[in-house]
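[09:14] KT: can someone run the structure on this one? pasting the chain below
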Amino acid sequence: MPVYLDHNATSPMHAEAVEAILPFLRQPLANPSSLHILGRMAGSALETARAQVVGRGKAAELASLEMEQRRQYLSELRDAFEARLASIPGRVVFGQQAPRLPHTTYFAQPDCRGVLCETAGTGKQTASGFPPGRGIERQ
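[09:31] RB: done, structure tokens below
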């Protein structure tokens, strides 16, 4: 099968769109503004398609609003978490003012050496992103 790369000129149809349009390509063509039976059927199909497009657009709009609200909520949680981290002596939080995804936090813990380290006397162990000897280690 050839690979088509010129999608500026045209794009392949999604399989669902092809399936939806096939019944109308197989029956006699009709003007959706006509009053005869074929015209009314075409008009009804056109109205259904318009409603589906509008419905999907509204769903996308609502999803976009919800995603923005969740992004803001996660950013606030991250900022509070980073403020607590920065208040612990010896910890350094990087990139607090940099634009980034809301679920990312970068910090250094000087007493962490190797892949596993104890988190500042809490008894909990966390994984660092580097195997022993491959990260930036403080002496």
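[09:33] KT: thanks! The beta strands are 92-94, 106-108, 116-118, 125-127.
[09:34] RB: yep, looked fine to me
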